[in-house]
Structure formats: structure tokens, C-alpha cells
Write a structure and sequence with these properties.
Number of helices: 13
Oligomer: single chain
Distance between the termini: 70 Å
Shape: globular
Order of helices and strands: HHHHHHHHHHHHH
Number of strands: 0
Number of domains: 1
Helix content: over 70%
Radius of gyration: 22 Å
Strand content: under 5%
């Protein structure tokens, strides 16, 4: 069991829990690439997480954006092997995705190449700024840009007068869920970087807490958490998802802010990750399930209006 938990930490399954559920939301819409897109997206996030951890571990630093911060808990050899396999899998999945949604496939190939090139030499002096504004750039690249590409394809299709039968476009619940996911991810990254603020400042890593100071970082984290809570509550009011996502987001935000306010930074990322992962899964499941539930009354009404013909032979 300890080896299993170590493998989960090393392979960054934790980051997948904050991103992949929203890919399933996109997969139910038109011009998304379906399950091929979900697999490609998950592999791409995993490639970036593994590459970034290796860039820090290779120069003797602890991983920054992670629940487990001790570098001695990571199997570097397993990380290097997993990164190579993941890179190969990303390329194969993106080539398959070319036949389904070439815009997302090109984005995946460019993102994979950029990740490998930027992180090939570690995150030392030459890469001191690679964590600067990560709490905004990572959610933008991982969630907002892929959704934007899908929306652009759907918009172009509507302008051309086309459409995909049986596959709806991105709607307000899908947009709201993805933005909520970006806020959840941003808060996790910022809370993780606040834990290593002093170490980052001493080692020259230019993160937002190290550059702007702890007080400013706390204020930004408060605003991000507040926005996430308000959006989760708005989704409940609009009927997009149930009560529990809003309750989990609010409770996790309060606990995370309490731990950071009391300088217990080590537990804040884990507390927020638990609530954020559960919220993302529940929200995504609600948004994916809603169109299916809406189609059930239509099917029933069609059966009532057009009952199946009686094919039994007439009785003698």
C-alpha cells in the first residue's frame, strides 16, 4: 500500500483530479473530439506535471505544486520513465485526434513540444520565472484554452450553417463549470506556492508569493477562493448542479484560509485539493448528466404520441 501511494504521488494523479473531469464536460458537446480528446488532454496534463517535477528534482529542489513536498518521497527514475512513455502516448493520441478535431490535436502537439523544450534544463537560474503567475497561466493553458478551441469550432460551424446531430454545443453550465475548475486549480497552485515562499525567495525562484510578498498573495488567494465560492453558489441557484459542490467549496475555502492565516501552510494545499477535487467531479457529473435527463421526457412523449405498431398476428 505505501508503494501504491508513492506511485500515485509520483505520477501526479492528484493534478489529473483537478482537470480531467472538465474534459468530460467538453466531450459531450459537438466538435470536441469525444473520448479521444479526454485521453489526449489527460496525457498532456500528466506530461506537464511530470516534466515540471523533474525540472525541480533534477537540481535538488522539492516539488512545488504538489500535495507531497518532500523530494525524497519521489522516485526520480520512475518519473523519468513515466515522462518518456507519456510523451510518446501524447504524440500517438494527438495524431489520432487529428482525424477528429485537428485544432485540439495541433494544440496538444505544440503544448507537448513547448513543455519539453522549456523544462529540459531544469528550473534553476535560467528558469527562475517559470513559476511566476503559474496560478493564472496553468489554468488558462489547461482548461480555458482547450474549451476556447472547441467553442471556436462550434461557432465556425454555426456561421457556416452546419451542425452536429445529437451533439449540443457548449452551453452556460459547461462554461461555468470550466471557469469554476480554473478557479479551483488556481487556488490550489497559489496555496502550494505560499507554502514554499521563503524557500523560493532564497533560491531565486520568482513565484507570485516570493515576488509580491505573503500579504499580497493571501489577498489574491482570498479573492480567488471567494470567486470560486460565489460561482459555485450561482450554479446552485441556476440549477446547474446540486447543493454539495457549493458546500464543499465554501468549507474547503474556510479551512484553507484558516490554515494559511495561522501559518500552517503545509496542510492548506491538501485541504483545498480534497474539496476542489470532489467539487470538480460533482459539478462535471451534474453538467454531463443534465442533457441526458432532459432527453428522457422527450423520448417518453414521442412514445406516447407515436406508439409502436401492433405486430401481433390477428386472432382467429
Amino acid at each position: 500500500m505505501p508503494r501504491l501511494f508513492r506511485a500515485i504521488r509520483t505520477l501526479r494523479i492528484d493534478l489529473l483530479a483537478l482537470t480531467v473531469p472538465f474534459a468530460f464536460v467538453w466531450a459531450t458537446t459537438s466538435h470536441s473530439g469525444g473520448l479521444v480528446m479526454v485521453v489526449t488532454f489527460a496525457l498532456l496534463v500528466l506530461l506537464f506535471a511530470l516534466s515540471f517535477d523533474l525540472s525541480l528534482l533534477s537540481i535538488g529542489m522539492d516539488p512545488r505544486v504538489s500535495i507531497a513536498r518532500d523530494r525524497f518521497q519521489y522516485n526520480v527514475e520512475l518519473l523519468e520513465r513515466a515522462r518518456g512513455l507519456t510523451l510518446s502516448a501524447v504524440i500517438i493520441a494527438a495524431l489520432v485526434l487529428l482525424f477528429v478535431q485537428w485544432g485540439l490535436a495541433v494544440f496538444a502537439l505544440l503544448a507537448a513540444a513547448t513543455t519539453v523544450v522549456l523544462l529540459r534544463n531544469g528550473a534553476g537560474r535560467s528558469g527562475a520565472r517559470r513559476l511566476f503567475l503559474a496560478e493564472w497561466l496553468w489554468p488558462l493553458a489547461m482548461l480555458i484554452v482547450p474549451m476556447g478551441i472547441i467553442w471556436l469550432w462550434q461557432w465556425s460551424d454555426r456561421q457556416a450553417g452546419g451542425g452536429s446531430a445529437g451533439a449540443p454545443p457548449l452551453d452556460a453550465p459547461a462554461f461555468a463549470a470550466t471557469i469554476l475548475g480554473a478557479l479551483l486549480l488556481a487556488a490550489f497552485i497559489l496555496a502550494s506556492l505560499m507554502h514554499s515562499e521563503q524557500a523560493d525567495r532564497a533560491s531565486g525562484l520568482r513565484t507570485t508569493p516570493a515576488v509580491a510578498g505573503r500579504t499580497t498573495a493571501e489577498a489574491v488567494l482570498f479573492l480567488v477562493l471567494s470567486a470560486a465560492v460565489l460561482l459555485a453558489i450561482a450554479g446552485v441557484s441556476a440549477g446547474w448542479w446540486g447543493f454539495w459542490p457549493a458546500a464543499l467549496t465554501a468549507a474547503s475555502a474556510l479551512l484553507a484560509l484558516w490554515s494559511i492565516g495561522h501559518r500552517i501552510d503545509s496542510i492548506a494545499p491538501a485541504i483545498w485539493w480534497i474539496g476542489a477535487a470532489a467539487t470538480g467531479i460533482l459539478v462535471s457529473a451534474s453538467v454531463v448528466r443534465a442533457p441526458m435527463q432532459a432527453q428522457i421526457p422527450d423520448v417518453i412523449s414521442d412514445l406516447i404520441r407515436n406508439p409502436a405498431p401492433d405486430t401481433r398476428p390477428p386472432s382467429p
